[in-house]
Amino acid sequence: MVTGLAFLATAVASLFAEATLVRYTQRRTPHLAAWTVALAMFALASAALAVGVSTGWDNGTFRVFYLLGAVLDVPWLALGTVCLLLGADVGRRVRWFLVFFSGLATGVLLSAPMAAVSGTEIPVGKDVFGAFPRALAAVGSGVGAVVILAGAVWSAARYARDRSTPGHARLAAANGLIALGTLVLSSGGLVQGLVGHDEAFTLSLAVGISVIYAGFLVAEGRSSRRSSLPATDRGSSSTTSMRDGHL
């Protein structure tokens, strides 16, 4: 069951990353670029997990899994939320900080001393790495999760204040699903750290990434419908959005 769920999470994340990449090449919007990076990392981390639980862990496989899954994935997913809600300029500044953090984390995780890992049970970070790698995971995933949850609350509050503006409901629903998926992923890591249930952890990965994918589909639904409108309708819609102060 653990191996099957790990491969399922890898497949869903790979399809998700491909979908975001295709849409990014069509529209070049920064939130799609951030989501593509995040989902590619998730797919690689899930692939490392699938290899570890099926053929046995080694130090290299666990370094990849921990770096991409526990440290970097949620911050890049959060960058998509920042770009979606605050715009490209703010997202660009946050992205440079995140690039620095990613380089630092990569150097630390690839060189940090670690206990030897083996077998097919999923190792726990606190039993393998020292304080600094685990602190990077706590900061990256913790801050990223807070940003995603705050974005969901902000979107919901904005929709509650002004339900007449087109797109607010869809944006609120999308960010809510992404936040819910992030919570599911975080709950799996918590269960794994406290009680060590591999089945619960891998199930949380498969369910969490599927819920986040649903949020992506909801967020992109508005863009897909607007791109199918006649040119005159798109122009009218864009003018109205600009006049009302919304993207």
- Based on CA atoms alone, the radius of gyration comes out at 19 Å
Molecular shape:
globular
- Residue runs with pLDDT of under 50 for 5 or more positions: 222-247
Output the structural class.
mainly alpha
Mean pLDDT: 80
Beta percentage is under 5%
Number of strands: 0
* Overall helicity: over 70%
User: Which class in CATH terms?
Assistant: Mainly Alpha
Major sheet attributes: none
- SSE topology string: HHHHHHHHH
Q: How many domains make up the 3D coordinates?
A: 1
Superfamily (CATH H level) name = Rhodopsin 7-helix transmembrane proteins
Question: What is the name of the CATH topology?
Answer: Rhopdopsin 7-helix transmembrane proteins
Distance between the termini: 44 Å
Q: Using the 3D structure, state the CATH architecture.
A: Up-down Bundle
Count of helix runs: 9
Structural commentary:
By secondary structure, the protein is an all-alpha fold. It has one domain (2-224): Rhopdopsin 7-helix transmembrane proteins (Up-down Bundle). 85% of the residues lie in helices and 0% in strands. It has nine helices and no strands. The chain has helices at 2-27, 30-55, 59-86, 88-111, 125-128, 131-161, 168-194, 198-227, 231-244. It is globular and about 55 Å long. It starts with a helix and ends with a helix. Mean pLDDT is 80; it is low at 222-247.
